[in-house]
Structures are given as structure tokens and as C-alpha cells.
Amino acid sequence: MRPEALNPLFVEADALDGVGPKLRRPLEKLGLTRVKDIAYHLPERFVSRCAVETLDDAVEGEQIIIALTPTEHRASRSNRGPYRVFAQDRIGNVCALTFFGRASFTAKKQLPVGEKRWVAGKLERYGDMLQIVHPDHIAQDSGASLAQLNEPVYALSEGLTQPRVSALIEQALARLPELPEWIEPGLLAREGWPAWRDALHLTHKSQHPPARDRLAYDELLANSLALMLVRADNRRRIGQRLKGDGSLRARLSLPFPLTAAQRRSIGEIEGDLAQQSPMLRLLQGDVGSGKTVVALEAMLIANEAGKQAAMLAPTEILARQHYETLRGLAAPTGVEVALLTGRDKGRARESILMGLMDGSIQIVVGTHALFQDTVGYKDLALVVIDEQHRFGVEQRLRLAAKGRRAPHTLAMTATPIPRTLTLAQYGEMDVSRLDEMPPGRQPIDTRVVALDRIEDVVAAVGRHMAAGQQAYWVCPMVRESEMDDIAAAEARYAALKERFGADVVLVHGQLRPEVKDAAMERFASGAAKLLVATTVIEVGVDVPAATLMVIEQAERFGLAQLHQLRGRVGRGSEKSVCLLLRGAPLSETGRKRLALMRETQDGFRIAEEDLELRGGGELLGTRQSGETAFRIATLEQIQRLLSVAHSDARLLMERDAKEGGGLASPRGAAARLLLYLFERDWGVQLLRGG
Ligand code: ADP
Ligand code: MG
Question: If you take atom 23 of ligand 1, which residue's CA is the nearest one?
């Protein structure tokens, strides 16, 4: 149960004035469903505007405020074209106010011909014409909000405008309750951080680094504390000691010797499994570093001890692939391996469920379907989670509730994240690193190509296919809208298909699983030569015969993501090529980042240097979505503040250390509020359970 003090923050956004059914969706798109989400929708940046009398006084490229009188509305002939309103300044200079899509409705209403309006926006040149595209503000008088010289700019979604968002934020801020302080007073004073509520007010008003830091720190503290609670809770839980006798592992006949890193990781896992408290271990290893056999050895230890093991994959495709691989490798051991996905129905499903209940199935691979209420196990002792970053801690906890006693957990990830972020994201786990690749890998020839040479690239793909080889073509996921991205992928697919015919297949996240799998299978079997995809192919997919990868607008991807994508090629004995198509002229950092991709294939090095490159100069709002578990804290803030938050959290955890200290203290009680605020409330649940 959430503490009452927080209720005003969890009120649905609809409760705010002016939020009707129409605004609901655009707000949801930004993840703004409750009052607190809106209050925490921090400005991406601030603009300072220059108020000008006439267009002659304005500088192109600057943010201006000016009084203009509309003279003419002109819709474009095509539906998709712009809607333009021509308007004059005081002395008759003309400027076009340009709108796309649904914004033209606003223009019609707000810019009546012949009536003076105050307009704020960025002045640009379009041909021989001055224009302002989608003005930020249109008002009848030069009211206070318009005249604000330092104005916040918020991320928007279609259907929202800056003034709309500002108005909502103002309401949300007015509803903020006063909360007790959870930050250690000495730290607060030393850093000069404002109180929580003040900090939120301040960050919306101006670029205020201490306020921003405080809010980021709050998030980091909540996270560290929650992870520590998981760890503490785990130590108290009773698991089962798993001691294998080696009988099953001895029957494996792997076609290669294990690398030293694999042997070391298996040893660490074996040590954990032999303990009473459940294992919580992360296996971190680059794409192709050989995590699957490590997982298999771990699962066989469970089997040797007479128990079951489950492997959870994020997608159907991956589950299927793991199943095939594991079944093949495990064949000589006689262990029964099964596959369970959401698509299994009727008889087949029943028989798998029976097998899990009676223990005749020893290893099961699957998607989320593995952990539905209807699925019961005889004695599940080990859960392996592939591509850990797709699952949150919360899901992991829910799933750990499946075993008769707390099962051991081995999480695996190929996302090469830097050490600081590993701590932030997986702080509750022990880490094994596969920092060595199996021998004999061919380096991937990586090149950066400008998008305007796309015809050459298409021709190269054609030659590649004509030579009987396979290729990937990856279209970017841009953050505005998944549907737009899919539209772009579909358009690219259509063009490539027209050129190359039936050899081309398309995969993206909105396809029905059957359709997607059918396409993947055509590609994996070699029937299709070119796979056009959004980033859904990012993880796992293994087609050794694919030796060329094209990544469109590579500069938009995180390096970790590029690295993972690139890891799809270079898996066979043939030499592989990766072409990074850059869509825009690159910034200095952008250039260095892509150069780094050319230079190395070491995922850990890429992760560290990428962090370094962006760390200091990271702009607000340029964060790669989903890269960290944080909404507020930037990479730079994580690096700077995480270890402080960590030790502060540890202080709070030491409940027995001192009279009046720890989580039982007033500050500890405040910190619990913080856990709810950042929806790490599973931490509090654990607290209660213990
Ligand atoms: P990951 O899941 O870490 O990306 P995989 O487990 O899929 O990597 O392994 C990638 C490939 O390397 C597989 O074809 C696997 O059989 C092979 N492999 C794994 N370990 C070794 C090893 N020690 N020596 C040679 N090849 C290996
Ligand atoms: Mg894998």
C-alpha cells in the first residue's frame, strides 16, 4: 500500500484541467499518465528569445517573439504538404508561418486574417522566404508567458504544444505535497541542493544545475536502495544447494574447447549453486562470446542434482533458436529439453505442462509463457534469463516466486555496458564477464558511408546477393513514433523488393509472430537473401551465412546497439562487411563515435569509450532511450553521483548499526517514500516480507 502522503502525485493526469480524452493519448505516448509523471517531465532545454519589432531586426536561426498580422492562408494541394499562413510585421515585411499535419487546424483557429498576433518561434529561411515552422506560441497579446526570455522546451508528442505542456506542468507543480527529506543533511548542505519540491519548481523555471542534480540523485538513491534490498532479501531466502556429480556434463561432446573465460564463469556459477542462498548472477559477454554453453553447463548442474532448469528468452524467435541449439548440444546427455511459448495451444501445450509438473522435462526454454500462473513445475531450481536488459528487476522477482524454494538466477546480457552502469543497473547481482572471444573470429570490415551514396550501397547489396550471400538491412528506430519507423522500414523494404524481387523479407515489431517467424525462417534457411528489419533483429539471431550488414542512419543508434547489430554478421568463416550509412553531417562526437566502431570490435571498450565521448558533452534530451534504467539521471550524473548514492543507500541499510539509524529512522521512512515515488516499490515489498 502506497503511503497516503504520495496520493496527490499518483492522481491520474485526467484530473488536471484541460486533460480530456483528446490529450490522454499524446500524454500516454510520453509516459505521462499521472500527476507525478507530468511534474517530472523536465525541460529538454531552455531557449532565450529575442523580442523584435520588425523582421529586419531579427537574425535568421534565432528564437524570436514578434507581432505579426496574417494576410493569407494557403493550404498545399497535396494532403501531406504544408499549410502556410502569410503574415506581415509592422512595416509590411512578410513571413510564412508553416504547419504540417493536424497542426493546420490550430493555425486556422488561431491566426485569423487581419488580426494582430504575437508569435514566438525560430526564424528560418526557406528559399527566398522567411518562415517560422510550428511556432511555439501564438497569443493575442504579449502576455507574461510570451515575454519570458528564458523559456523551457519540453519533449512533445503529436497533439501537444509547448503552452499546453507548460500549463499542465504548472498545475502538477501546484499539487506537489511537502515531503520529508530523505537525503543525508550533510550532503544536502555540502552540495547546496534545494528541497525536493523546490527542486522540481526550479528545474522547470531555469537551467538550475543543483536542482537537476538533486532530482537525479533522488532517482539514483531510490535505485541503489531498491537493489540493496533485493540483495539483502535474497541473502535471507532459503534456496537449494545444487551439487552436480558431473555425470551429465561428462557426456557432453562440445565441438570446441571452452575458452578460459567460459571455464572461469562456469566455476563461479558452480560455486554459487552450491550455496544455500539463491544465486543472483549476471553473465556479461559480447555477442558471440559463447554464453549459451555456459548456461547449458549451469542447467546441467541443476539436472544432475535432480532438479529442473528454465531458460527465458525475450522473443519467440530467440526461444526457438535456443531450444534448437540446446537440444542439439544436450542430445548426448539424454536430458529432456522442451520449448514453451505463448503460441503453443491445446494438446501440445498440455503435454509440455504435464512434463513440467511430473519432472520428465528437465530443461524448458521459452518466453514469458514459462511463468504464467497455469504453468507449474515439479522442482524448478535454476532460472536462466537471456538478454536480461529486456526484463526488469520486478519481473525477475515475480518469476523467482515460481520455484518450491527460491530458484537460482543466472541473467545473461550481451549489452556491453560500462562498469558504472553495470553497478546502477545490476547492483544487486554478482557479475561474471566473458571478456574473451572464442578463437578464429574474422574481423568485420566496418565502413562509414554517406547516405547520398545509397545507390552504390544498394548496388553492392545486389552484387553480394548475386554471389549467393546473404545480407541484413537495418532501418532505424527513431523515437518520435514506432509507427513512423515501421512506415520507413516498409518503404525501404518495398524499394528493395522492387529491385531484388522475392529474395527480400521484412521483419518488424508490429508483425504477427507467425508472419515474423515465417520471414525469419525464410532468411535463416537461405531461401531469402536479404532481411530488411527494424532493430528487432538486435538480439540473438544467428545466421552464419549472412555476411553483409547495412545500418541506415547509424548515427542515431547507441554504440552498444550498433555493436550488437553488427554482431549478427561475422559469425561464419566468410569475411563480413558492415556499412554504417550516416544520414546527416556528423558532429565531432558523432564522427568519433562511428570511427570507434570502425576501429574496434571489443564491446566493453566500445561501451567505456562511448560513455567517455558522450559523458561530459551529453546534451539534455539526447539520451538513448532505454539505455539506462533511469528517466531523470543523465549518463554524466550517473557517473558523478552514483557512488555517493550507493554509499548513502548502504548507510540507510545498516539498520542495526546505530540507535535511531537505518531504515527505521525518520530519514529511512522518508526514503521509503522515495522508493514509491520512483516505482521501486518492490523494494518496500521485500522489506515487509523480511
Ligand atoms: P552468445 O550467446 O554469447 O552471443 P553463443 O553462445 O551463441 O554466443 O556462441 C556463439 C557461437 O560460438 C556459437 O556458434 C557457439 O557454438 C560458438 N562457441 C561457443 N563457445 C565456443 C568456444 N569455446 N570455441 C569456439 N566456438 C565457440
Ligand atoms: Mg546468445
Answer: 258
